[in-house]
Structure formats: structure tokens, C-alpha cells
Amino acid sequence: MSHSQAAHAEPKYEAIDQAKLDALRHKHAWLVEPLYRASDLVTEMPFFRWVKRLRTPLEFKCVAEQLYFHSATFPKVMGIMLGFTSMRENPMMPFYSKHAFGESDHHMLLRTWMRRHGLIDSDAELDKVITSIETNACVNLAYQLAVEQDRDKWLVTINSGIERCSNDFFKIVAPKMHELGAGDEYFDVHVEADEHHSIMGLEHLSSIDPESHRAKVLLSKALEGVSLWAAMLHSWIGIGMMPVFNLDGTLAAERKRA
Ligand SMILES: [Fe+2]
Ligand SMILES: [Fe+2]
Questions:
Q1: What is the pTM of this model?
Q2: How many angstroms is it from 258 CA to the middle of ligand 1?
């Protein structure tokens, strides 16, 4: 779908080997199955119905200006994760740094797209955007994890959780923008990049006993990432909601705000 447009360009991310993916998914099923269930539920929430109803790229402004902050901040947090890496964790450095590097110019692609389609008249406008509490909460979760330096917690929450949600977001938004005549590399690249980021995290994850307390801790954190991601998307279109998930990835409750 999205990559035919970029077929002439060098692929930035290695192709994903389906057999390897299946093996990783099987090995970490205790995490992947509930997490996929939860993230699939997010794609059925009102935000995505709103996306499907978009008629012009201009209507996407309320999302794009918050997304710009998110896109610009995530690579910074990944840089903190790299910078705080202990000597014992040195083998993880290429993983963190490649992720930070890969994400580092994405916000600029989005900014150029916003200029091209008249969402903003100048780059400086983006510096004046006041980000929502939910946007800050989602980003702050990553800051917390970078400081905590718990590798598995980082991987399950950022790579398996947030990157999967982000991949779902771009898989819906990228073709929608093409439909509106506003398709762009910023959206298309994420369909591939975030899938890569999401899956590759599993390669570095420890083997965890699914019955252990540690498994519950990790799964809770990963699901917290999905909740905060969903709350963030809805805050962008003026809907206050915080979906909360059970440890099996089903919806526990929705905390609505009047
Ligand atoms: Fe990105
Ligand atoms: Fe990503």
C-alpha cells in the first residue's frame, strides 16, 4: 500500500522475516497475546472513526500539532535511555541508538507536510502548541522508563506496546492521507518503521516465566502504555477517556471525564 510510492528509495528498515516473527511471538506469547488484544481494541475506539471521517488534511491539524511534539520528543527519550545505559548493558547500545537515530528526523517530515498542506504558516507556530495532559503523560512514561533502566520494562512498554499502537495508527492514517491527496513519506515510513521497532524489541527480551510476578509487572506496564497512548489520541480530538485493560488485554473499564 504505502511503500509502492517509496519503491525507488533504499529500504531503511530490514524486511521482517515471518518465521522469525512467529517464533518470537510464540516465545513471548504471555506478553504478545494480551498486548495485541488490547491494541486491537484501541483501533476500534472513537478516534479511528474520526480519522475515517476526515475530509481534508486541514481537519487533522489538532492531531498533527500534538503528534509533532510526540515525534520530536520520543527520539530524545531514546537518547536518554542510551545515555544512562550501564556497562553491564553495553550490548544494548546499538539497539537504543539505532532507534533514536531512526526517529530523529521524523518530526521534520511532519512539519514539512504541515506547511505543504497549510496546517501551519510557519515552523514557529509549532513551538507555541500547548500539549495535552495525556500527550505529556504518554511521553512521561518513556522518561520514567529511561531513568529506571529496566531493559525488559522498556522493551515491553516502548517497543511491544507503544510502537505497536503507533504502527496501528499509521496503518490507518497513511492510506487515509493518500485518499485525501495528502499522502506523505512521514506517514508511510511509520507503517514500516514502527512495525520493525515493535517486533525487534522482542529479540532482546529475557525469557520470563508467564506465571511469575515479574510477568505481571511487565504486562501491567506495557498495558499502561497502551492506555496512555489511547488516552492521548482521544485527547487530541477533545474526547476525555482512559481505557484500562485487564491483564489478558480485555477492556476493564473506561474512565470518562465529563
Ligand atoms: Fe517516528
Ligand atoms: Fe517508531
A1: 0.92
A2: 32
Structure confidence by residue, pLDDT tens digits, 222-247 = 999 999 999 999 999 999 999 999 99
In this structure, the chain runs to a length of: 258
Mean pLDDT of 135-151: 98
CA within 13 Å, CB half, 242: 11
Q: Could you say which ligand is closest to the alpha carbon of residue 13?
A: 2
Cα-to-centroid distance, 116 and ligand 1 (Å): 19
CA distance 187 to 93: 27
- For residue 258, the CA-to-ligand 2 centroid distance in Å is 32
- Residue 213 C-alpha to ligand 1 middle, in angstroms? 32
Domain parsing of the chain, residue ranges: 18-256
Which residues fall within 8 angstroms of residue 2, CB to CB, at 6 or more apart? 174, 175, 178, 183, 187, 188, 191, 192
**18-256 CATH fold:** Heme Oxygenase; Chain A (1.20.910)
